[in-house]
Structure formats: structure tokens, C-alpha cells
């Protein structure tokens, strides 16, 4: 299997793992939900978990890969405020936790670019 064939499956796996984590350990995700959003943090945690699982399935299927990868790029941009909230909330935590929270911020850029690359590769194949 070539790198270009593995990339979508790896992205789908990452999304699926994150989606499952939202249900397996929701409390840690609840804490990152910005308070300005309506409803309960748990509702947002579960909704984002469902979204990640749906995006994973869409990317795994070649017929829906392009649209799902584009939606994934938008999703990664959309969850960025939660990462900012986490970095702010964790600024007084021990150094390793603080570093992890801050390190997540620039990580969003390669994730968005990865999703866009998967969408572009899918478009080139169609």
C-alpha cells in the first residue's frame, strides 16, 4: 500500500480513536468546551465524538472521502477554540500538562493541511 493510500486510512483511524475517546472518557473533553456555547458540555462532547466517528467513516470510504476530508479540515478549524480554552485553563498546571495543552495549538495546522491533502488526493483520483 502506497503512502497516498495509507494517509486517508491513518486520518480516519485518528478521527475514530478521538471519537471513541469522547465516549470512553467524556469528562476530560467536557472541560474544554467553551462556556459560551449553549447547552451542556457533555452534549458538545458527545456531538463532537459522533462527528469524528462520522468523518472517520466518510474518509475511510473512497466514494465519500473528498467531501469528508473537506469537512474534517473545517472540523479541525472549528474545534480550535476548545484547544485555546484548554491552554488558558491549564496555564497553572504542572509543566508537562501545560506544555501538552500549549502544544496542541500549533498541531491544528498540520491536521487541517493533512485533511486538505486527503481531499485533494481524492479529487485527483476521481
TrEMBL record:
Q: Where in the cell is it found?
A: Membrane
Q: Which Pfam families match?
A: DoxX_2
Membrane topology classification: Multi-pass membrane protein
Per the record, the domain of life is: Bacteria
| Keyword Ligase applies | no
Q: Which residues form the signal peptide?
A: 1-23
Q: Which InterPro entries match?
A: DoxX
Q: Where is this protein chiefly located?
A: membrane
Q: Which UniProt keywords apply?
A: Membrane, Signal, Transmembrane, Transmembrane helix
Indicate what this protein is called per its UniProt record: DoxX family protein
Upper taxonomic lineage: Bacteria, Bacillati, Actinomycetota, Actinomycetes, Kitasatosporales
Amino acid at each position: 500500500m502506497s503512502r497516498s493510500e495509507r494517509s486517508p486510512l491513518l486520518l480516519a483511524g485518528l478521527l475514530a480513536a478521538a471519537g471513541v475517546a469522547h465516549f470512553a472518557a467524556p469528562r476530560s473533553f467536557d472541560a474544554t468546551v467553551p462556556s459560551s456555547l449553549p447547552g451542556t458540555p457533555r452534549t458538545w462532547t458527545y456531538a463532537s465524538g459522533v462527528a469524528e466517528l462520522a468523518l472517520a467513516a466518510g474518509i475511510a470510504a473512497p466514494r465519500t472521502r473528498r467531501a469528508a476530508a473537506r469537512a474534517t479540515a473545517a472540523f479541525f478549524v472549528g474545534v480550535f477554540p476548545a484547544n485555546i480554552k484548554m491552554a488558558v485553563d491549564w496555564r497553572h498546571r504542572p509543566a508537562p500538562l501545560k506544555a501538552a495543552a500549549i502544544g496542541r495549538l500549533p498541531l491544528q495546522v498540520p491536521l487541517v493541511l493533512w485533511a486538505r491533502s486527503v481531499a485533494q488526493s481524492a479529487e485527483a483520483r476521481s
